[in-house]
Amino acid sequence: MTQHLFITGTDTDIGKTLAAKALLQAFNQAGVATAGFKPIAAGCEMTDGELKNSDALTLQNASSVKLDYSEVNPFALTAPLSPHLAAKLDHCDIDEARLDAGLENLSAKAELVLTEGAGGWLVPLSDTRSLNQWVAKQQLPVVLVVGIKLGCLNHAMLSKRVIEADGLNLVGWIANHVDPNAACQQQNIDYLTEQLGAPLLGRIPFLDGDKSQLAHYIDLSKLALC
Ligand SMILES: Nc1ncnc2c1ncn2[C@@H]1O[C@H](COP(=O)(O)OP(=O)(O)OP(=O)(O)O)[C@@H](O)[C@H]1O
Ligand SMILES: C[C@H](N)[C@H](N)CCCCCC(=O)O
Ligand SMILES: [Mg+2]
């Protein structure tokens, strides 16, 4: 049976895509057939006659299964905004049936489907729906990426509370050192290790240069999937 992970984060721009790439590379090295999914990408550019987004391209390239762009990213929205605003500007409705179909398609092709959200846990898709509601409908196990910086403790604990209130399983978290100057980084990690009640799957240091090889930052043995 296909395994799933949904990658959320404490905010936008805190390293969900980098952590997703690290996880995909770790699974690839373990011989697992992987597919990345970025169901909704806001902030796309016309590339070869098609709207494309850099997160989705990263996931497409890091997947071991060969996938078309549109399979990785069914909703490619232009403006780099919250999806509900970007969709309005593009006169597009985010039809969740298409998200369901996209996930089902990848489930048939891969042993592990890794889905990256947009922004944080409660990001809106429309005036009445938010992405967490779709994740809850799909019952996807959740990995929380914490961008280690001042403010992350509150954001991480709020995310945990709502993920669990949504009836979902927080199966792990990843500490991503996005801010090389953040104070008390180890103390923050110690606090979250204690408080999140989920395994720390890896720590990604601040990477000044090459970000191509990331698998060694992840310990898949910490991940209990059923
Ligand atoms: N550990 C790190 N070291 C150095 N730079 C990092 C690190 N993690 C992330 N970055 C950089 O920070 C930026 C944001 O990272 P990323 O795109 O992975 O965030 P995100 O949470 O996926 O954002 P979005 O909400 O747009 O999907 C990128 O330029 C990325 O290269
Ligand atoms: C455009 C950006 N990089 C992300 N893809 C979308 C972030 C949405 C954040 C919405 C919010 O919580 O205010
Ligand atoms: Mg991203």
Could you explain how this protein is built, in words?
The strands form 3 sheets. The chain has a 6-stranded parallel sheet with strand order 2-7-1-8-9-10, with helices on both faces. Strands 3-6 form a two-stranded parallel sheet. It is an alpha/beta fold and 226 residues long. α7 runs parallel beside α8. It has one domain (3-222): Rossmann fold. The chain has helices at residues 16-29, 54-62, 69-72, 83-89, 96-109, 131-138, 152-165, 185-195, and strands spanning 3-9, 34-37, 40-42, 45-47, 50-52, 75-77, 112-116, 142-147, 170-176, 200-204. α7 links the parallel β8 and β9. 36% of the residues lie in helices and 20% in strands. The mean pLDDT is 97. It is globular, with a radius of gyration of 16 Å. Adenosine-5'-triphosphate binds at residues 9, 12-18, 55, 118-119, 176-178, 204, 206-207, 211. Homodimer. Belongs to the dethiobiotin synthetase family. ATP binds at residues 13-18, 55, 116-119, 176-177, 205-207.
Short recap of the structure:
This is ATP-dependent dethiobiotin synthetase BioD. With 226 residues, this protein is an alpha/beta fold.
Compile the SSE list and pairings.
Blueprint: E1 3-9, H1 16-29, E2 34-37, E3 40-42, E4 45-47, E5 50-52, H2 54-62, H3 69-72, E6 75-77, H4 83-89, H5 96-109, E7 112-116, H6 131-138, E8 142-147, H7 152-165, E9 170-176, H8 185-195, E10 200-204
Parallel strand pairs: 1-7, 1-8, 2-7, 3-6, 8-9, 9-10
Antiparallel strand pairs: 4-5
Helix pairs in contact: 1-2, 7-8
Bound molecules: adenosine-5'-triphosphate, 7,8-diamino-nonanoic acid and magnesium ion (MG).
Magnesium ion binds near residues 17 and 55.
Protein name: ATP-dependent dethiobiotin synthetase BioD
Subcellular location: Cytoplasm
Subunit structure: Homodimer.
